[in-house]
Amino acid sequence: MQDFNVKMNKKSERGGSWQRVACFLLLLALLLGTLNVWCLHLWESREEMIPVKLKHLAGVQQEPENTLDLLVLGNSLSYTSVSNMDLWNSDGIAGYQCGHSGQTVQEAYETLRIVLGQQCPRVVLLETNALFRGRDGSMGWADQFDTWLAYRVPFLQLHDMWKSALFGVKRVEENYKGYTFRTQQDPYTGEEYMVEAEEEEGFHELSKRYMDRIVRLCRDKDVRLILFSSVSPVNYSQTRIDLLEAYCREMDVEYIDFNAPGMREQVGIDWTTDSLDGGDHLNHTGAKKITAYLREYLREEHLPDRRGDGRYVSWEEAGRAYLEAENG
């Protein structure tokens, strides 16, 4: 009888332990759910509280459904190379700049996945530098899981918004449908950089895997994907361009290399005026030159001119504000 009572007590203890675990998990789920709702409310209503790297994603999600025709993705080389507001003011192209500093290929994929849930852009421009960034091995897999989870549990990306809410911290950055003026000039004074790299180069494994997913997603959604490599002596060499050209041939993806000497001359890049920081990024004058080339390139797509359409009042306002800031 004593042994029977001992066994029953142990079963009861185990049952109580599972109940406590279940209660803990339920309370945790309720807490995370509440925090997610709170963060999403701030995401939609308090732009100044949103971390700078997420402002573009927050902004594009506020656009009315099915009103975007162009999406730009990539790390800092993307948003310092393409002025989507120049495309608007000249051709009425509704293109949103969704690149951000340090954007990985996985983050570009997740952003594209979210945007395609409410928009039907005809063209996606993606800057390629992120293919050479990232961590391999176990750290890379950990980064992949963290990113995957963060784009599905908003609180994990927006957790520090409480600082803004409680202490009035504001993250203000003037942007025009994702584009921000960067007018500083720091010339590139180095030698010709389009030569073979001294060290062996290659794509990061996980970055390539997510680029493959982007290619498939665009095909599934009937979106024209154009990869491009912006002018950047710091980030590109002939070896890297050869790898990118081979990848695009293999995947049957359009590719524009702005680093080739002939292309730089055609675009009109002037290292004394168009470099933001000594050959890493372009400044505003350099971005206008890349954008002018892309404008002609995109005209074969016959993207609609949205100027005068009542659904694009905010674009008209942003276009005017952009010109005032540029000419001011």
Helix/strand order, N-terminal first: HHEHHEHEHHHHEHEHHH
Please count the beta strands (DSSP E, at least 2 residues each): 5
Structural class: alpha/beta
Cα Rg: 24 Å
Proportion of residues in extended strands: 5-15%
How would you characterize the overall build of this protein?
The protein is an alpha/beta fold and 328 residues long. The protein is 51% helix and 7% strand. Strands 2-1-3-4-5 form a 5-stranded parallel β-sheet, sandwiched between helices. The longest helix has 44 residues, at 2-45. It is globular.
Question: What's the topology here?
Answer:
Elements: H1 2-45, H2 55-61, E1 70-73, H3 76-79, H4 84-91, E2 95-97, H5 105-115, E3 123-127, H6 137-150, H7 154-158, H8 161-167, H9 205-220, E4 224-229, H10 238-251, E5 254-257, H11 261-267, H12 284-298, H13 313-327
Parallel strand pairs: 1-2, 1-3, 3-4, 4-5
Please tag this protein with its features.
globular, alpha/beta, five-stranded parallel sheet, 328 residues, 13 helices
Task: Please give a quick description of this structure.
Helix content is 51%, strand content 7%. The protein has 328 residues and is an alpha/beta fold. It has a five-stranded parallel β-sheet with strand order 2-1-3-4-5, sandwiched between helices.
